[in-house]
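Researcher: We are triaging several targets before committing to wet-lab work. For this one, the compound of interest is 2-oxoglutaric acid. I'm pasting the protein sequence and the ligand SMILES. What I need is the predicted three-dimensional arrangement of the protein with the ligand bound, expressed as structure tokens, so it can go straight into our comparison scripts without reformatting.
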Amino acid sequence: MNTEWKMAALDHGTEKAGKDLLRALVDGTCSVVVIRHLLPEADFSANRRRISPLFERAVTTHYANSTLTTIGPYLAKNIGRMDDYFHEAREAEKLTATVSFDLARRTRDALREAFDLTSFEPAVEPDGQRYAESNVRIYSHGIRTPLHNDNIMRDAAGKGLVVSRLRHQLSCVVCIQECDEGGELRAYQKAWESADERYKIIDGFGYDEAVVADVPRQDFKPQVGDVYLLNPTFYHSIEEVTGSDRVTMGFFFGFYDDELSAGVTWV
Ligand SMILES: O=C(O)CCC(=O)C(=O)O
């Protein structure tokens, strides 16, 4: 693997994001792509205001080594219970519609244009069930998200879901509120492989840090308004948050082939 492991930052106001950046994420030569000013400031601030009344509806999942607080579902958490997942996806969509929160759609539309995608919508099963379009993640003071990776091709293998047929998975995150200290995304230049399962934390979340010993890493501290992309099949953690909550909206996206043109999203 290329030993270069750098992030790329661009200002949407003055530079056009090219498909080469998506390819660099897929290939594991770029750690994070940050696109500043992807969304008009007014759209972003309106959405930030709209989502705050829903914070009290956030649900916390407890693991032995961490907690995960979200508004909206996570497919990987529900992979054996798809009826529950699609139900939660519908409920989350209704809830966010009550406050006109449309940050996911606006972000998708902007990314579709920035990367010349031919389509970019939430994935849909042949029976019409629609995957959740985003979730909002709240990381409070003292919370560290352990080292992990997200790989739907692995997690949904053999389940007959459309997303298990994807070839590539990427992740999009929008920073709604930054924390005072910490909260960096720490991205490692190592993709998950099956031999790593011996490092999996039993009854907890993620993997032992030994799996990334001596691997190049990149820290990125998101700031309000940043839209950033990463390859979540590579190991990453979110360092301990200090002070105000770190709040993001995110979704995964993927491609069924190497063209990186027709994308689907889910979370
Ligand atoms: O919030 C972040 O910086 C990363 C979130 C994450 O774990 C992911 O997108 O896979």
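Researcher: Any quick observations?
Model: The longest helix spans residues 82-98.
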